[in-house]
Amino acid sequence: MKTINPLTALISGLLLVTLLTPAWAQSPVRAVPVQQREIASHKTFVGTVQASKHAILGSAVDGRVVEFNFEEGDFVKANEPVAQLLINTISLQRDAAAAELEVRNAELKELENGTRQLEIEQMEARMLAAKSRKDYMKLRRDRAVELFEKRGVTSKEVYDEAVSAADAAEQEYMDAEKAFELAEEGPRKEQIEQAKARVAVQEAIVQELNDRINKYTIRSLFDGYLVKKSTEIGAWANSGGAIAEVAKLDEVDVVANVPEQDIPFVRVGREVEVEVFAYPGRKFPGKVAAIIPQADIRARTFPVKVRVPNQFEEDQPILKAGMMGDVMLQTSETKLALLVPKDAVVLNRGSKVVYVVSPGEQGQIARMVPVTLGIHDGSDIEVIGELEPGMNVVTHGNERLRPGQPITVLPAASTASAAGS
C-alpha cells in the first residue's frame, strides 16, 4: 500500500482550495518578517591556484650530477639535499686544508699555554750551572793574574787563557740568565697574535672550500613538492643552470584579476571563500593576502592573491598549482539594508512587488508594495520600498494573490510540523 507524504497532501490541498475558491476568498499563505542588517555586494571572479612559493633550484658551479634523491611529486624538506655534483678533488683539498688548520691551532695553543714548569726549571738549572762555571773561571783568572803580574811565575799565554775563559764564562752565565727570564715570562703577545692570524687565514681557506662543496649540493630553502626535474644522474650541470623546481603547497594563492572599479572595495586580510572547479560545492576558506598595485594595461584588472590553507588526502595536497576556481570578493561598501527571501518577490506586469500581511476589516489581507531590488545576500535580497523591519511578507502562496485579498497566514508551528512530518 502506498504511503502519502503529509507535506505533499498539505500542498495539494492548498492548491485545490485555491482553484475551487473565488479569487477574493481567503488564501492560505506563509510569511516571514522583513530583516534589517548590514550587507555588501559581492562578485565572483575566476582565479588560478598558484603555489605560495615556487623556486627553480640551480647549480652555482659546473659539475657532473652523481646523485638525484627525489622524483617528481615527492615531498622535499628544507635544506634536504635534492641533487649532488661530483666533489672528489675539492674534498681532498678541503681535507688537506683542515689538517693544516689543526697544526696552526696546535701552535697557537702551545703559545697561549706558555712555557711549561719543567722547561723553566731546566732553564734555571742551566743558569745556575753557568753561574758556578763563571765563579770558578773568575777565581782561576784572579789567580793567574796574581801569578803573572805579581810573582811572574806563569807565562803570558796561561794568563791570557785564564782571562779569556773567565770572560766567556761570564757571557755564558748572562745568556743562561736571560734565557731563564724569558722562560718565566713566556711567549710574547705579538707571537700569539701572529699565531692567531695564521689560524684565521687557515680557517678562511677551509670555510671557502666548504662553501664550494656546499655549492655542489643542491638544496631547497623551504618545504615543498618537487614539481619538475631538469636533469638526471650523469648529466653535466652548468653554473646557473636549472636542476629542479620546488613548489610550496601547504598553503596556496588563488590569484584572481579584479576590474579597477571593484578593486577599491577589496581589503587585505578580509576572509573569503574559494570554490575550485575540480571540487564543485566544496568551499575552501581563505584570506586576501595581497593586492598587486600594477594593472594589466589591456584588461585594466589588478591581480588579487587569496591565501588558502591547503588540505591533504593520503599525504597529497588537494589544491594543486594550475587549478581554476571561483573567488567571492566584496565589491561595495557595507550598508544597512532591508532584506526579504527571494521567494517573496513577485513580478507584476514588468514591475517587482511584495505582499505585506496587513490588518483588514474581517481579518488579514495582502497589501501589495512595489519594490526596487538591490544586493543579493545568499537566499535573501535587498528591497527598497515602503517597508519596515519586522513587517511580515508573503513567501509562499503569493503568486495568485491580489491587492487587498483576505489571507490566512499559516502558523510557524504548523508549517514546521508539516515540513518535519
What is the compact description of this entry?
The chain has 421 residues and is α+β, with helices and mostly antiparallel strands. The protein is 34% helix and 37% strand. Strands 1, 2, 17, 18, 19, 20, 21, 22 and 23 form a 9-stranded mixed beta sheet that branches. A 6-stranded antiparallel β-barrel has the order 3-10-13-12-11-16. The chain has a 4-stranded antiparallel beta sheet with strand order 7-6-4-9.
Overview of the structural elements:
34% of the residues lie in helices and 37% in strands. It has 421 residues and is an alpha+beta fold. The chain has 4 domains: 101 residues, Beta Barrel (conserved putative lor/sdh protein from methanococcus maripaludis s2 fold); 93 residues, Elongation Factor Tu (Ef-tu), domain 3, CATH 2.40.30; 63 residues, Beta Barrel (OB fold (Dihydrolipoamide Acetyltransferase, E2P)); 72 residues. Helix 2 packs antiparallel against helix 5 and helix 3 packs antiparallel against helix 4. This is Efflux RND transporter periplasmic adaptor subunit. GO terms for molecular function: transmembrane transporter activity. Keywords: Coiled coil, Signal.
